[in-house]
Write a structure and sequence with these properties.
- A hairpin with a 7-residue loop joins strand 9 and strand 10.
- The two termini are 45 Å apart.
- The protein folds into three domains: 106 residues, Beta Barrel (Elongation Factor Tu (Ef-tu), domain 3); 62 residues, OB fold (Dihydrolipoamide Acetyltransferase, E2P) (Beta Barrel), CATH 2.40.50; 118 residues, no CATH class.
- The radius of gyration is 45 Å and the shape is elongated.
- Helix content is 43%, strand content 26%.
- Helix 2 runs antiparallel to helix 5 and helix 3 runs antiparallel to helix 4.
- It has 329 residues and is of the alpha+beta class.
């Protein structure tokens, strides 16, 4: 009987403890953080130098990805493109020449020249041999013999040159010459590609959907590559930057869904997911409010607001806007 009574008392105590824990958990409010909207911006600029010819948008205009924003004077780049095309044609013609080889007419002409120089040499050699015999009988002078020898040597040199030229025309161009011509064509093609790219870069297009924040220059301005033309606030992604203390850090799990409220619409929530938790601690910035002391170390969070579906980001969210982040139970 006593044993049964002890068991009943133990069960009652366990139930009471469980109920107490449940009450504590039920009464614990969800975690609340405070942060600011962080919208990404981009400085749009040309990749080439030139005179600004046209601007299509004003500050405050909403743009879509691919919209034409501005143009440079393209004439210098059109001329450069024409020069690159002409240079490629020249280099391709040279490659065709060394690849195809010499014409049959050129080979035949070189062969005829060899025959001509061969006849000249044969005559000069015969004359020299005759003079060499006459010198022995003192029928000619030493100068006459030397002149015949000079003519023979000149004819021999001309014959050798003609034979070398015939061999060159018959065998075609060397492998190294063909490879050099191929390299020249490749370089000319690269120059043409660069000229086409430079011409295309005289037009500036919107990188993404967004709103023009700043129109930094006006038509007629000479721009260097990289000079900002527009500052654009991107529609997506929209982030919230917040900070969390170490006590609640375990609740900041990447991918966890949270609700985000603005002061202007306290009853309408945006839905976001935690995308980044800083691995290092830092002191709370002065512009951030947290339920703990500002001197405590906190960890930075980045929360991305949904781009589509329920609770998605809209035009009412502005850069730096303060928001309240509520964690789900």
């Amino acid at each position: 009987m006593k044993k049964k009574r002890s068991i009943i008392i133990a069960l009652v105590v366990i139930a009471a403890l469980g109920y107490g824990v449940w009450l504590v958990c039920k009464s614990t409010p969800p975690l609340v953080l405070y942060g600011n909207v962080d919208i990404r911006t981009v400085n749009s600029s040309f990749r080439v130098t030139g005179r600004l010819l046209h601007l299509a948008n004003e500050e405050g205009d909403h743009i879509k990805q691919g919209d034409l924003l501005a143009k440079l004077d393209a004439e210098p780049y059109q001329i450069a493109l024409a020069q690159a095309k002409a240079n490629l044609m020249v280099q391709q013609a040279q490659l065709d020449l060394v690849t195809t080889g010499y014409r049959k007419e050129e080979v035949a002409q070189a062969a005829a020249q060899v025959l001509q120089y061969q006849a000249t040499y044969d005559y000069a050699e015969s004359n020299y041999q005759r003079m060499a015999k006459l010198i022995k009988s003192a029928s000619i002078s030493k100068d006459q013999l030397d002149n015949s020898l000079t003519l023979r040597n000149q004819a021999q040199a001309n014959l050798q040159t003609a034979k070398q030229k015939l061999d060159q025309l018959t065998n075609g161009y060397r492998k190294e010459e063909i490879e050099a011509a191929q390299a020249s064509v490749a370089a000319a093609k690269a120059q043409l590609d660069q000229a086409e790219l430079n011409l295309a870069d005289t037009e500036l297009y919107a990188p993404s959907n967004g709103t023009i924040l700043t129109r930094a220059v006006e038509p007629g301005t000479m721009l260097t590559a990289g000079t900002p033309v527009y500052a654009i606030s991107l529609d997506q992604p929209v982030w919230v930057r917040a900070y969390i203390d170490e006590v609640n850090l375990a609740q900041a799990i990447a991918g966890r869904e949270v609700y985000i409220y603005t002061d202007g619409r306290p009853d309408q929530a945006y839905i976001g997911k935690i995308g980044f938790v800083s691995p290092t601690a830092e002191f709370t910035p002065k512009t951030v409010e947290t339920p703990v002391l500002r001197t405590d170390l906190v960890y930075r969070l980045r929360i991305q607001i949904n781009a589509t579906g329920s609770g998605q980001a809209d035009d009412l969210l502005r850069q730096g806007m303060p928001v309240t982040i509520k964690f789900t139970q």
